[in-house]
């Protein structure tokens, strides 16, 4: 029977391998990969040395050490969701500004096109007069 430490370590190594595979295939970009590699390293370390919780939990006043892992995991998930929302807000703001710039460019282009069209017609008249 396999020890749970080996199972946790194997899961962490598997997550790290999957992240590196996704980065190599350009499906996952740098800052996100760093976050997930940190998670994989944490799983490997805490899976290989679960007694760390027994030593750290009393320091934080946690009487039942496994609860510290649950609380840390939930805290990291909340932090990840917050960073995802911040990134999404940044992208939406950037997209809104790009749409506004495009609208300004289209408006200025509509002002310029009738002038160029009128100048083009004027040049055609001049060139046709020269031919005559």
UniProtKB/TrEMBL annotation:
The chain crosses the membrane at residues 6-23, 32-50, 62-83. Keywords: Membrane, Transmembrane, Transmembrane helix. The keyword Transmembrane applies. It comes from the Bacteria. This is DUF2304 domain-containing protein. It comes from Nitrosococcus wardiae.
């Amino acid at each position: 029977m396999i020890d749970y430490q080996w199972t946790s370590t194997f899961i962490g190594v598997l997550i790290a391998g999957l992240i590196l595979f996704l980065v190599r295939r350009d499906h996952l970009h740098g800052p996100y990969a760093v976050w997930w590699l940190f998670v994989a390293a944490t799983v490997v370390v805490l899976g290989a040395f679960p007694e760390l919780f027994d030593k750290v939990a009393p320091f934080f006043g946690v009487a039942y050490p496994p609860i510290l892992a649950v609380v840390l995991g939930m805290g990291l998930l909340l932090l990840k969701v917050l960073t995802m929302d911040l990134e999404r807000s940044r992208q939406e703001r950037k997209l809104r500004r790009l749409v506004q710039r495009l609208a300004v460019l289209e408006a200025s282009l509509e002002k310029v096109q009738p002038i160029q069209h009128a100048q083009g017609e004027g040049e055609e008249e001049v060139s046709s007069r020269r031919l005559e």
